[in-house]
Amino acid sequence: MKEASEFRAGNIIKSGNDLLLVLKAEYNKGARSASTMKLKTKNLEVGSIAETVYRATDKLDEVRLDRRKMQFSYKNGDMFVFMDQATYETLELSEEYLGDNVYYLKEENVIDVLLYNEKPISVELPPQVDLVIEYTEPAVQGNTGGKVLKDARMETGLMTQVPLFCHDGDVVKIDTKTGEYVGR
Amino acid sequence: MIDNFGDAGVTYRLVRNLIIELSGVRIRLFTNGLKAFSELNGDIDSCSKSQSIGGAEYYSYEVIDEEFLRKYPPAELVIEAFACNIPQLYYQTALNSECLIINIDHLSAEKWIEGIHLKESLTGAKAKKFFFMPGFTLNSGGLILDRIHSVSEKKQFRKDLCRFFKLDGDALIGTVFTYEHDFSGLISDIFTYGKKTELIIFGEKSRSSFEPLLMNFGFDRMGNRFSKKNMTVIFAGFILQENYDLLLKAADFNFVRGEDSWARACLSGRPFIWHSYFQKDNYQLVKVKAFNDLLKSYYADTELFGKLSEYQTVFNDRSDGVKDLPFSFFLENLEPISSSNEDMSEFLFKNCNLINNLLFFADSL
Fold first, then answer.
1. How far apart are CA A132 and CA B263, in angstroms?
2. Is the pLDDT of residue B250 over 80?
3. Phi first, then psi: what are they for A87, rounded to 5°?
4. Helix, strand counts (H, E) of chain B
5. CA nearest A15 in B: which residue?
6. What pLDDT does residue A143 have?
7. In chain B, domain spans
8. Domain B5-144+353-364 and domain B151-351 have a common topology
9. Residues of A with CB below 8 A from B82's CB?
């Protein structure tokens, strides 16, 4: 069992007899300590997609899946192709199954591919990834307060916020759980 | 229950309104803080672990055991207020029955609440559970409206209020029910503004914020009444929900806090400043910003709204050394502020009825 707040895209929840693949996990800080976790999930048996909500402290059953270290090779349409570096075997995963994880996948990165009944269903990301800022507005002069952030689009399409001193082309560290800027 | 009169206040109000809407339906309230309910309703005995008052049954958490649950199995509809952690035995029994569990969460003006309102929380058991998010918009759960007070009721209450507290009916009347705050700026600004102003202070936290200031400013004291220049400050005792609601409507301006009095102030249509519950890292400012963003749509005068939102933001900033902005703009603009707040109140009464939304949703399942 693990707390709902710890779940992220790629994890599997067991609810009754259903296995649910988390496609998107959104944490919202409520009043006092009553924070919530909104999860977009895909039922692995029937394929239905649903949005569910939990208290951040709710305990959910996580299913541990088989995993294989593979390199993300390239994207082919909406399919992401991964290669086992030892056997050169390739596996494909669709964007639908990867959910928000697509924003953190860079070609040549080696990550864990998760398998259910020997079929790839998701990936497990490292806690942080390095991404290049593709576009961000130039800083406005005078607006230099301590925690001031500006919108930025990363090379993978992720929209997030970065400090004013960041520019196009900078490589920044992004938290794969929250999508937030961590550092340079 | 975390906070005596906020959490208890909202749930008591919910019970009162459900009794009206659901005649003949048995309503049981379980709490770990009966004392707060006994303050809200003098008929409730804080020492009695089970009692039936005014159409509802009130139980202390301690009564819940297997024998109790055999006699009174979990209801068809179980409302979990503010993720309060229902006693495990009751919760587990409810999960394994065909009941509907609805978690009514804290009130917020943030947009994300619409995204989780009425979303299911999978239990993996027989019971179904959903999140219900109170709010100020069409896509939220709304507010407990309670009842609309007529203009004549408001006028009569103001007269009664003036008689009871020996107030001057022509003076500006303000109420303060907040968390701890440095009100020295407010007192100075009222002196400078010059118009006769009478402030009624509720709750220990507001009282303890004012007490030392009144000494420092050299107010004359007569019992719970303090006077200096054009200003009178009165420390009031606890009053019933319905009277507080009317008081907010009868006053010229109000300072409110937390959740229940904030909702009431929004419904009152009167000028007010909201003091949000303090959160770690000043996170309450995110909540205040969301509320300011929501208020903005009701204000045609952008300059006035700018000052109001800035004042409310700084009023809620608990960083060291932060002082309130001048309050004079507020006192000078009570009419236009009131007009905008009346528009919000009208929208809420017309579109945001929590009890209707809740019962409609429960019926639809």
1. 45
2. yes
3. -100, -10
4. 15, 13
5. B124
6. 53
7. 5-144+353-364, 151-351
8. yes
9. 34
pLDDT of res. A66: 87
Report the residue from B116, B125, B286 with minimal CB separation from A53. B116
Task: Determine the Cα–Cα distance for residues A158 and A134; give it in Å rounded to an integer.
Answer: 10
CATH topology of domain B5-144+353-364: Rossmann fold (3.40.50)
A34 in contact with chain B, both atoms CB, cutoff 8 A: yes
How far is the CA of B30 from the CAs of B20, B52, B74, in angstroms?
19, 12, 11
Nearest to B264 by CA among B289, B285, B284, B239: B239
Q: How far is CA B294 from the centre of its chain?
A: 17
Give the three-class secondary structure for A183. Answer: strand
**Listed residue (A100, A97, A125) closest to A27, CA to CA:** A100
Query: Cβ–Cβ of B122/A52 closer than 8 Å?
Result: yes
Please give the pLDDT value at position A145: 46
Q: Look over chain B and give the mean of its residue pLDDT values, rounded to a whole number.
A: 93
Of A14, A34, A52, the CB nearest to B121: A52
Domain spanning B151-351 has what CATH number? 3.40.50.2000
What global pTM score does this model have? Answer: 0.85
Contact with chain B for residue A46, Cβ under 8 A = no
Please, what is the Cα angle at B141 between B138 and B143, to 5 degrees?
A: 95
Question: What residues are paired with A162 via a beta bridge?
Answer: A150
pLDDT digits (tens, 9 = 90+) for B64-74: 999 999 999 99
Whether chain B has a CB inside 8 Å of the CB on A58: the answer is yes
In which residue are the tokens 């576009």 written? A135
Q: What is the DSSP string of A32-53?
A: TT--EEEEEEEETTT--EEEEE
What mean pLDDT is reported for chain A?
A: 88
Q: Are A47 and A21 spatial neighbours (Cβ–Cβ below 8 Å)? A: no
Residue range B301-347, pLDDT digits in tens: 999 999 999 999 999 999 988 999 999 999 999 999 999 999 999 99
End-to-end CA distance of chain B: 28
Is B57 buried (19+), middle (13-18) or exposed (0-12) by CB count in 10 A?
A: middle
CA atoms within a 13 Å half-sphere pointing along the CA-CB vector of A25? 24
- The pLDDT value given to residue B121: 95
Residues of B with CB under 8 A from a CB of A: 2, 82-83, 103, 105-108, 110, 112-113, 115-116, 119-125, 131, 259, 277, 279, 283, 286-287
- pLDDT for res B2: 44
Q: Which residues contact B82 (CB under 8 A, 6 or more apart)?
A: A34, B2, B7, B10, B104, B105, B106
Alpha-carbon distance of B15 to A86, in angstroms, equals: 65
Residue in A16, A28, A34 nearest the CB of B112 = A28
